[in-house]
Amino acid sequence: METIQTNQPAKTRKSKTVWAGRIISGLCILFLLFDAIMKIIRATSSVKGTTSLGFSDNVVQPIGLLILGFTILYCIPRTAIFGALMLTAHLGGAVAIFVQQFHGNLIFLFPLIFCVLVWTGLFLRDDRLRAIILLRKQEGT
Prior knowledge:
73% helix; elongated; mainly alpha
């Protein structure tokens, strides 16, 4: 008589990993949507913050629309990796601007850490990305 072993712990672990990724991604998405909407509606605080970084006030809405578009791409499983790449480009620009504007201040770490969270959430929830990026030692090597 053969016994059939089920791999229940691995399935539970995978499910927890996916849910952790969804939660991290969800929090990032909420923040990005809030930021995009505040820029699109030209909220005073958003316009002041953007202009204080050296931008003209007429680019606030286009930046908000770009963030919104990138965030929507990040939300859709089929385009999530492309969305994450575009958000990385946006956040890389934010790092560069923060380094230039705030010499010696560690505020530039916020977009850097946020970018890491965007990719961590995607990595945990997307099997395709985990298949590409192997972080564990392969058997037999």
